[in-house]
Every structure is written in structure tokens, then in C-alpha cells.
């Protein structure tokens, strides 16, 4: 792969199917509540029945198109459309058409359904599955946060005005940090980095190493180490481990990119840590919005160039993770389109760059 730069064109955005996308925080979906979301360009209502059951339905009433999210959750575990009161269960099946009268039993409501998406709640997050074949059961489960009893302790979410690919690449691109994130109180002098990467089932990992950023000093001792994983479609975990006050800890930072549509992406960063590390919170409150905001602003600038649909470059070695992302995505899209097994194109490799 030590060839000339890869030249690729921007433009068409593919949303991968047969994947879980992080859609909301569990705590934001109350019992009896609903929220309308645009996910992968599709309107989806995410809600919770009064018994606590989650649901995710296409937010378009099959009768005449009104958003179900504008209706209400009823006691007997259904959602009522605000226009003519049709009711739908969490599996999307219509359970009642109130306007029909006795003798009109040629209309069977249970034959009418709105698309329902597989949905999971774990680690305080809600994940929605977008299947290539709408009726198929999920072929996997959503990613797990590698912290025991994970609770989102700190959350920052911003809308990036770009498609998912530029959002994802921006997160794995090591060369931008000194320019985009440089501050007087943050180290800006670039140094040479050598990092080893290994493949994961649907992505790759920058293997465990001692972090170079001064910010990690807050986590104390010399034994702090971190690994950074990326897996399709857009999940990045930074898993920090070490000892503080003589106790070992795991802190995990999750960054997910959820496509709103082809030109807008929700980027959410969530940190998970054990309750006894609560003193970390103010630190994240200061740094978190700053860094995600830096990335959002550079993407807005990038948009001014991308509007002209230029050819772009990915160059060695600092853009290799971005090349891997494109290859992984292509391999996944082909495997779901052809029904063939996914083969990870990433091979173990050590990358060197200055940042
Ligand atoms: S539009 Fe929903 S019930 Fe008529
Ligand atoms: Fe960044």
C-alpha cells in the first residue's frame, strides 16, 4: 500500500445496512413518550410504551401520512395516530381502525402495518437496526461499552453539516489535531508518532499504548494506557485504563456518527466511568464541547470546498485509517448486496506520522 495518494471523489453517500445506529439516550425516551428522528434519511418515531417497552416505527401513518409521533401512546401498549385514531402496536401491526362499524369485517387491521425497526436499549443507549431486507431479524447485536455497568456520565452531541463519511474520517484522522484542536493550554508542537493497528471483526484497533497527550495526566499514574477501536458503521471507542488512588479503573469514550440524511450527521460523544471517578466530570464539561465544536467548525469550512465536488486525496500514513474506512465500507456494502460473507480488508500494520 506504499503507492501514490489515493484519489477519490466526494459526493454520493452510501448508508450501510444490516447495521445498528445509535439513535438516542435511553434517559431521553420516557415511558409514554415519543420522539421524531430523521435517521439515514428516514423519519422514525422512537418511543416507550407505558409498560417500558421501547419501539421504533416509521413515522408515517400508512393511512394518510401523518407522523405517528404527533399522536399519543395509549395504555394498552399501542400508539394512536392523531388524524383518524388508527392504533399501532410496537411491532407495527395496526390493532384498531376506529371508523369501521359492525359488518365491515372485510377490513382486517392486522393486515396493515407500519415498518418497525429492531431496537435495543443497553448501556443507557438506544440503538436502531437498519436491515437491508426490512423483514429480516438482526444478524448482530449493538456494540457493548467495555465498562462494567456502563452509565453515560457525560454526553455531547452536535450536528455536523456533512455526510457520514467526512464525519467519520474527521474522527480518525490524526494529522488535524495540532491545527484544529491546538490551544495555548493544549500541546501543539507536532511530534512523530508510531502506532500499531490490528483488524477487528468489522474494523480495526490502534493497540494499547501509553497516551502522549498531557490531558491524560489528570488520570494520574504512569500506568495509564489507551486503545482506540473503530467498527462499522461509525463506532469509535477510546478505552483508557490505569490506576488512580491505588484503584484500577476503566474509562471509555464512545463517539458515534449517526446519519440524519446525506448532508447532515449527528456526532455524539459519550464518556462512561465508574461512579467513584465522579470528579472527572468538570474536566469533560470544559474540554468536550470545545473539541467536538472544533471538528464541527472545520467540517463547515470543508463544505465550502466540497460544494464544488472536487477530487480529494488520502495520503500515507496519516490517512491510512481513512483508506481502511472506505475499504471496510465497500466490503460491507458488497457483502450485504450480494449476501456473501464480509471479509475485513484490514491487515495488521504499524503507521508513522507527525502530529
Ligand atoms: S392518517 Fe393516521 S389514522 Fe388517518
Ligand atoms: Fe478532531
Strand-helix topology:
Blueprint: E1 6-9, E2 19-25, E3 34-39, E4 42-48, E5 54-58, E6 72-74, E7 78-80, E8 87-88, E9 94-96, E10 119-122, E11 125-130, E12 152-160, H1 164-172, H2 177-180, E13 192-200, E14 203-209, E15 225-231, E16 235-244, E17 247-261, E18 264-272, H3 281-306, E19 311-314, H4 320-338, E20 349-354
Antiparallel strand pairs: 1-19, 2-11, 3-4, 4-5, 6-7, 7-8, 8-9, 10-11, 12-18, 13-14, 13-20, 14-15, 15-16, 16-17, 17-18
Helix pairs in contact: 1-4
This protein binds FE2/S2 (inorganic) cluster and fe (ii) ion.
Mean pLDDT: 90
* Proportion in helices: 10-25%
Q: How many β-strands, per DSSP?
A: 20
Spell out the CATH superfamily of the largest domain: Naphthalene 1,2-dioxygenase Alpha Subunit, Chain A, domain 1
Distance between the termini: 21 Å
Which series of helices and strands comes N to C? Answer: EEEEEEEEEEEEHHEEEEEEHEHE
Q: Explain this structure to me?
A:
β4 and β5 form a beta hairpin. α1 crosses α4. 16% of the residues lie in helices and 35% in strands. The protein folds into 2 domains: 89 residues, 3-layer Sandwich (Rieske Iron-sulfur Protein); 203 residues, Naphthalene 1,2-dioxygenase Alpha Subunit, Chain A, domain 1 (Alpha-Beta Complex). The strands form 5 sheets. An 8-stranded antiparallel sheet has the order 12-18-17-16-15-14-13-20, covered by helices on one side. It is an alpha+beta fold and 355 residues long. It contains 4 helices and 20 strands. It is globular, with a radius of gyration of 23 Å. The protein binds FE2/S2 (inorganic) cluster and fe (ii) ion. The site of fe (ii) ion has 4 residues, from loops.
Amino acid at each position: 500500500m506504499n503507492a501514490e495518494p489515493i484519489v477519490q471523489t466526494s459526493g454520493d453517500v452510501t448508508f450501510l445496512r444490516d447495521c445498528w445506529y445509535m439513535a438516542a439516550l435511553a434517559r431521553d425516551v420516557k415511558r409514554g413518550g415519543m420522539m421524531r428522528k430523521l435517521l439515514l434519511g428516514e423519519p422514525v418515531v422512537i418511543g416507550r410504551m407505558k409498560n417500558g417497552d421501547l419501539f421504533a416505527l416509521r413515522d408515517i401513518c400508512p393511512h394518510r401520512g401523518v407522523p405517528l409521533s404527533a399522536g399519543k401512546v395509549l395504555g394498552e401498549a399501542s400508539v394512536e395516530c392523531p388524524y383518524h385514531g388508527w392504533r399501532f402496536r410496537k411491532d407495527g401491526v395496526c390493532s384498531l381502525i376506529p371508523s369501521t362499524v359492525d359488518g365491515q369485517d372485510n377490513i382486517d387491521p392486522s393486515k396493515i402495518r407500519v415498518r418497525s425497526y429492531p431496537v435495543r436499549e443497553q448501556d443507557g443507549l438506544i440503538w436502531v437496526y437498519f436491515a437491508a431486507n426490512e423483514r429480516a431479524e438482526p444478524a448482530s447485536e449493538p456494540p457493548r461499552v467495555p465498562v462494567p455497568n456502563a452509565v453515560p456520565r457525560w454526553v455531547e452531541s452536535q450536528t455536523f453539516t456533512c455526510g457520514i463519511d467526512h464525519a467519520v474520517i474527521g474522527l480518525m484522522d490524526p494529522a488535524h489535531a495540532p491545527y484544529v484542536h491546538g490551544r495555548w493550554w493544549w500541546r501543539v508542537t507536532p511530534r512523530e508518532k508510531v502506532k500499531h493497528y490490528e483488524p477487528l471483526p468489522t474494523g480495526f484497533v490502534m493497540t494499547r499504548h501509553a497516551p502522549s497527550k498531557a490531558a491524560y495526566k489528570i488520570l494520574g499514574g504512569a500506568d495509564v494506557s489507551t486503545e482506540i477501536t473503530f467498527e462499522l458503521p461509525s463506532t469509535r471507542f477510546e478505552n483508557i485504563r490505569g490506576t488512580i488512588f491505588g484503584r484500577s479503573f476503566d474509562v471509555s469514550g464512545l463517539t458515534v456518527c449517526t446519519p440524519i440524511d446525506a448532508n447532515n450527521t449527528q456526532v455524539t460523544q459519550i464518556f462512561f466511568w465508574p461512579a467513584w471517578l465522579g470528579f472527572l466530570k468538570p474536566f469533560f464539561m470544559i474540554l468536550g464541547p470545545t473539541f467536538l465544536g472544533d471538528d464541527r467548525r472545520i467540517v463547515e469550512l470543508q463544505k465550502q470546498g466540497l460544494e464544488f465536488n472536487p477530487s480529494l486525496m488520502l495520503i500515507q500514513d496519516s490517512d491510512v485509517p481513512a483508506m481502511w474506512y472506505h475499504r471496510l465500507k465497500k466490503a460491507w456494502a458488497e457483502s450485504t448486496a450480494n449476501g456473501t460473507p464480509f471479509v475485513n480488508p484490514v491487515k495488521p500494520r504499524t503507521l508513522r506520522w507527525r502530529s
